[in-house]
């Protein structure tokens, strides 16, 4: 298999073109909606030999397909497909950061700074704060702007632990209030420590918080003209007031940092580096590619998020919403699911796809527009995965059957919908009852895909459908023949895990394409910038681990980074 590099613009473009050539024949997989698996008979587009082989494969091996793992007994064409795809995916093994950044060292967060962080967030903040601090010191930054700061975890570590002036920007005013309150508690702790050790005259940096929607490049450019304040500042009420706090063109040097900045926000950060003199460097870890605006699609804006580079535009490659959704899939998460969780995942998709048949036949006006239940299922799976991860390694033998069981009262669900209370006004789907059903699903003793869903699942499917209809504001009627729908799809239920695994394998590849587009955009600026991509987190802890790091070459940074 060919080995690809992204050290230079021509190499990056070559990699992008190879990805584009590879994915073109597989549009039937990439652009499909799995909720239509039965309705559109999606399995018929897949190679018959692949289906026959994988329908008898161990579930554990299906879950390894997105990670590029093949089995010796597979057809040669299937092995070639998986291995070629793997060769085109950007590697996710955590880089040796000490070799990349001068004087790099991570600091274990104390209990005060780490308050409220889960294990994943703590890992991310410890690593990213050390990288941002190293970059900020190298470019002699006056301040760091934390874009999409959330509750201020990164901003506060940069301010209190690394002593950088920080401005934390987030669209949610509640997050700003939480950040300020949290900063006050941390400040009191550090003040007490300074008095205890006789350094009471030391000035603490406290993050400044700004609440605004970064809807455009101009907004973020305007905010970079802020003069960083030390100590407590009153949260600004509007952008107009924000601008009154700072001095435009004051020669300040800034670093933009974003930990999983959603959608176009990561793109806007990179563009701001080019268009704002004050910004000297950017450290960006993207997220939520499904929220990216795209040229030629209904969500496109004047300045869209994909494609960024001239190279990708010239390749004439578009993604579309399904592909951008798929780019959010993580091979590491699939690999870590395990047999039981994997079976539950496939089972839930089978129920959801069969429920789509009900909507299509009996409620065609809704069946063609509502896809919200599948997204709720994704959130539920992640919730269950977190429960399992948090229980390990103390209970290595625990499975989903150990989780608390909850009764699913269909009459109560419908009465809530009809009363207009709670989630009745929420059009997002069947969250509460699906969660109850999800917890009630029984596990299978077999581990092969063939036969794992052959047990009589009809009673549970019927409950799933009735719950779904109630949550959509549709009262189940006696005219709906759930049994016939289930009998129609039952012979093909075991193929949905195969189809999903093959499709999920494209997730890391599509994310690679999006990230390479961002890197190429920066490389196309010629000698103005130094730009690299690096996997900075442990992928087993934080699968969305690739950072795009760029600095202006006149910012005093020696070229020391490597990309692959």
Automatic annotation (TrEMBL):
Where is the Methyltransferase domain positioned along the sequence? 120-294
Q: What is this protein called?
A: Methyltransferase domain-containing protein
Which SUPFAM superfamilies does the UniProt record give?
S-adenosyl-L-methionine-dependent methyltransferases
Q: Which Pfam families match?
A: Methyltransf_32 (PF13679)
Judging by the UniProt lineage, the source's domain of life is Eukaryota
């Amino acid at each position: 298999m060919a080995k690809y590099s992204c050290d230079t613009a021509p190499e990056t473009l070559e990699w992008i073109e190879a990805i584009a050539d590879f994915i073109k024949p597989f549009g039937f997989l990439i652009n499909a909606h799995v909720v239509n698996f039965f309705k559109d008979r999606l399995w018929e587009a897949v190679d018959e030999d692949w289906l026959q082989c994988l329908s008898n494969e161990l579930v554990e091996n299906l879950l390894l397909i997105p990670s590029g793992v093949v089995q010796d007994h597979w057809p040669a064409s299937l092995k070639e497909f998986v291995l070629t795809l793997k060769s085109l995916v950007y590697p996710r093994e955590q880089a040796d950061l000490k070799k990349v950044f001068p004087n790099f060292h991570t600091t274990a967060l104390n209990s005060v700074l780490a308050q409220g962080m889960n294990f994943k967030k703590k890992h991310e903040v410890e690593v990213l704060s050390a990288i941002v601090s190293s970059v900020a010191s190298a470019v002699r930054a006056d301040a760091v702007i934390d874009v999409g700061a959330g509750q201020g975890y990164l901003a506060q570590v940069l301010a209190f632990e690394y002593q950088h002036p920080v401005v934390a920007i987030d669209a949610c005013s509640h997050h700003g209030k939480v950040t300020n309150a949290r900063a006050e508690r941390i400040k009191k702790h550090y003040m007490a420590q300074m008095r205890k050790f006789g350094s009471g005259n030391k000035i603490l940096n406290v993050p400044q918080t700004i609440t605004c929607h970064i809807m455009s490049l101009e907004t973020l450019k305007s905010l970079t003209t802020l003069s960083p304040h030390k100590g407590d500042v009153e949260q600004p009420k509007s952008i107009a007031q924000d601008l009154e706090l700072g001095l435009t063109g004051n020669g300040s040097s800034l670093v933009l940092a974003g930990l999983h900045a959603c959608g176009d926000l990561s793109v806007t950060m990179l563009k701001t580096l080019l268009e704002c003199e004050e910004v000297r460097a950017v450290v960006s870890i993207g997220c939520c590619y499904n929220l990216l605006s795209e040229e030629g699609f209904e969500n496109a804006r004047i300045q869209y998020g994909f494609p960024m580079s001239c190279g990708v535009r010239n390749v004439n490659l578009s993604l579309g919403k399904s592909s951008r959704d798929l780019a959010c899939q993580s091979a590491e998460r699939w690999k870590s699911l395990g047999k039981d969780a994997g079976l539950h995942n496939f089972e839930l998709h089978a129920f959801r796809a069969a429920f789509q048949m009900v909507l299509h036949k009996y409620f065609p006006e809704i069946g063609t527009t509502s896809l919200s239940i599948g997204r709720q299922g994704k959130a539920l799976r992640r919730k269950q995965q977190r429960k399992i991860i948090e229980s390990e390694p103390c209970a290595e033998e625990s499975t989903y059957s150990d989780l608390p069981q909850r009764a699913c009262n269909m009459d109560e669900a419908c009465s809530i919908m009809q009363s207009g209370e709670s989630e009745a006004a929420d059009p997002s789907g069947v969250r509460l009852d699906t969660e109850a059903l999800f917890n009630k699903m029984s596990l299978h003793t077999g581990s092969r895909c063939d036969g794992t869903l052959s047990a009589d699942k009809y009673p549970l499917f019927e409950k799933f459908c009735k719950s779904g209809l109630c949550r959509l504001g549709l009262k189940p009627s006696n005219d709906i023949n759930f049994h016939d729908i289930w009998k129609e799809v039952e012979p093909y239920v075991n193929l949905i895990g195969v189809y999903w695994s093959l499709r999920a394998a494209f997730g890391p590849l599509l994310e690679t394409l999006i990230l390479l587009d961002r890197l190429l955009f920066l490389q196309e600026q010629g000698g103005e910038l130094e730009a690299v991509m690096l996997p900075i987190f442990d992928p087993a802890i934080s699968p969305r681990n690739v950072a795009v790091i760029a600095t202006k070459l006149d910012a005093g940074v020696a070229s020391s980074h490597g990309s692959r």
